[in-house]
Predict the structure of Glucosyl-3-phosphoglycerate synthase.
Amino acid sequence: MKKVSVVIPAFNEQASIGDTLRAIRERFFCDELIVVDDGSKDETADIASKWADKVIRAPRNQGKGAAVQLGWKCASGDVVMLLDGDLRDSAAEAAHLLAPVLQDVCDMAVAVLPPPQVKAGLGLAKGLAHHGIRMLTGFEARAPLSGQRAIRRELLNRLGSQDKGFGIEVGLTVDALRAGYRVAEVPVFFSHRETKNDWAGFRHRGKEFVAISRTLCWKWWEGQEWKRKS
């Protein structure tokens, strides 16, 4: 039986991290539950310590990508599942994301969430990620920015350093496909906090767009280097 580790990066998630972890503990089996507190200023780490096997406290906010990589490097599972801290009760749906990997259908399963109830933003970041992944790999990603993923340890061990910010999902997809691993998108009824059409929402999407652009440029350059060497 393969050992499953769940890694959750969290930044100022005191309002939802408890519900998320409780749902995992009570309704979804995993061998190891790790929370990486990415320099939160609230009670995220203290709440997480009541449920998680391990809480890693970063001294300052380093970015989602950095927190995710710190978490999976400390995980011991044969399969590592990445989940966001704001899934609340819907985190119990994680079994549907894990199944294709355990059944050897794919090496990385990416959750496709239901469409948001209220459309926010112009979809620029998602569109950039979709077209960038297609340009670099030929893969038509429906959920290029989904942070909910189940990944074989073997695949993670093959990956190089990833973006420290919001470009990590795009980087994971591109690197996995380039290395010949199987990526599958799986509909899962996860739900999480939606960014709004306010200053905080636009700021978040702006940072996401910049990080995705940075990641795609880096992956394009890596591809050119590989072609030159071969």
In short: DSSP finds eight helices and seven strands in the chain.
